[in-house]
Structure formats: structure tokens, C-alpha cells
Structure prediction request, 370 residues.
Amino acid sequence: MERLRSSYGYGSYRGRSKLRTFLTVVIVILLVVLLLAVAAFFLLQKYIVYTDDGRARLELPFLQRQEETAPPVSPSADDVVVVTAEPTPEPREEILRAAALPRSALYDGTAADQVAAAGGNAAWFDMKADDGTLGYVSSLPAAISFGSSDANPALNAAITALNGGGLYTVARVSCFRDNLAPRQDNSLAVKTNSGYNWRDAGDIRWLSPTIEGAQDYVAGVCRELAALGFDEIWLDNAAYPTTGHLEYIKAGANYDESQFAQVLDGFYGKVREALKDYPEVKLSLSAGGGVLTGEGDKSGQTTGLLGKYADRIYAPGPESEEVSRQYDRALEGMGLSHARLIFTSDPYVPELTSSYIPMGGALLSAAPTQ
Prediction:
């Protein structure tokens, strides 16, 4: 039987060849890998980046995020590039050159022309003069009582129109040096030991800075001037007197040197309060040269008070380079720029004269910025 099967070509069945099965599996795997590679090529093609030398680099998004969150590598000294930023210049304050104009320029239409002719950029008016008169019509009961108010009913309207016309205007207020009010009301005066009105070296009477009524009168004048539209209120003679026979002044509660600075602090604060509805109005203070040089002048003023209350400081021009340096140190201590120092007399220092217009009875000028 076995021979018969063999003679007809039949053999016994022994199953599939192991080699054939292995080759089939390998071929299938290679086909799958090939298909995956082709698919990956098309899917990842947009993430392939070519470098400048022609090489291809794969940049996957998740790898980029990891790189971004990785801590930065500290650069070496050779890698550091120092970039120096251009300094931002501080705004330069305009130098004030104020021409002193007569009160007639308040209403005759000549103010701007007079300022231009003097080479200035502002005008200052004596709105409360040393003689005690006011350059406008006041509604203050004290001014009416003293007879210090102007009587022209059209004057205030003319002043308001001038101040609304674009010209920078400064109202000078002789605070306590006042030859009229103490004569009308002796209770407000700086007095002698004999009880009379004390007079300074210029034979002018003074209101007592210590007395509330005197302070209230001056503060009321400042408020009315601000309401008339002046850009700046300049408080002159805004401390205790420093010239004349000071030893003749009656000492006591109204003239106590230990209280001078405290009294002035209260007065300047009162004027600031009077101007609270006019925040755009500058408040400036005259200072004796001794205050800025550190020598003192028995006025009661201090650089601390000036720095606290003054938008500008009016002072005599320095008489020497050393005095100029002392002014500089005082301004630095108060945190004020040179443009906020106004000279009321010719300065000594040559380098300042090029941008300074001498007063000559007509002009006040700010110290130039350095």
C-alpha cells in the first residue's frame, strides 16, 4: 500500500514549512513599517526644518515647549552684549523773565507790548504794595475799613480779561510790610516798647505776622487775586522784619523769636488753604539771602518752610561765586531746580548773565537751569 501511494506521487502530510512562515511574518512587518514610515513622512513633513548647510532637522512642538520651559543657560562673558539706553532728558523748565509793569497796564491794553519791549515773557504787578494799597477792588471788610481797596468799579473786569489773554501774570503781595493797615488799626501792628507803630529802615510800618487778623487779611487778598486769574501769587515781606532798629520792637507774645518759624508755618499753610480752589495758581515766597546761605536773618524763615510751601523762591542775586554755591546747596536740599529760583537783583556769577535779564527796576529773572 505504501508503495502504491509513492508510485502515484502521494506523500504523507507533514504541515507548513517553518521557514516559509517566518518569511511571511517578516514581509508583513516590513510592509507595516514601510506604510508607517510613508505616513509619518507626510504627517511630519511640516516639522522638518533645513539648516543653512542643507541638513534636515526635525522640530516637534512638544519638544519646543520643553525647551521654552527649561531654565536658561547663563551666558559666558564672551556672549554678553551690553546695550546702553539713551538717557531720557528731564523736561526743561522755562526761565521766568517777569517785567514789572505799572498798575495802569492792568487795564490800558499795553501789558503784552511792554513785556515784549522789556525782553520778558511775563508781567508782575504790585497788587498789594508796601504802602498798603491794593491794585484791585476788594470786597474784604478789612480792606474797606483800611481804605486800601481801589475804587474803580471797572478795574476787576479789566484784570480778569488781561489774565485770560495768555500773558503769564504774577501778583506781588507785600504781606506784612504795610504802611496803611497798621495806621488804621494799631492792634494789628508791630509795636515799639512805647506802644507806637514800629517802622523799618525805610520808615514803613509792619503788620504783625503773629496776629491772626493780619494773617487773615493777607490770606483773603491772595484768594481774591487768584479769583481774578493771576497765574502766580508772590508773597513778599512774608516773614518778620530784618532791617531797622529791631531792638525797638516790643518783645512778648507777638514778637517771640523762638516761635517765629512756627508762626510762619501756620501762616503759609493758611494761604495755601485760601488758594485750595485754585490749584493751578503758583505760590511763591521771597527769601532773604541769609536763609539760602545758611546764615539766617532773624525773619523766622527756614529752608524747610520754603521747600514745603514755595513753588518758586524769590531771592537777591548771589554776590559771589561762593554765595552762588551756597544757593545751589540750599536748592538741592529743598529738592528745587534752578529754574525755580528767581533773582530780584543782578547776580554776580558771570555764567548766569547770558540768560539773565538784569532787574534794572523792571525785570525779575529765574536762575537758568544747569
The longest strand covers residues 122-128. Residues 12-68 form one domain. The CA atoms of residues 304 and 334 lie 7 Å apart.
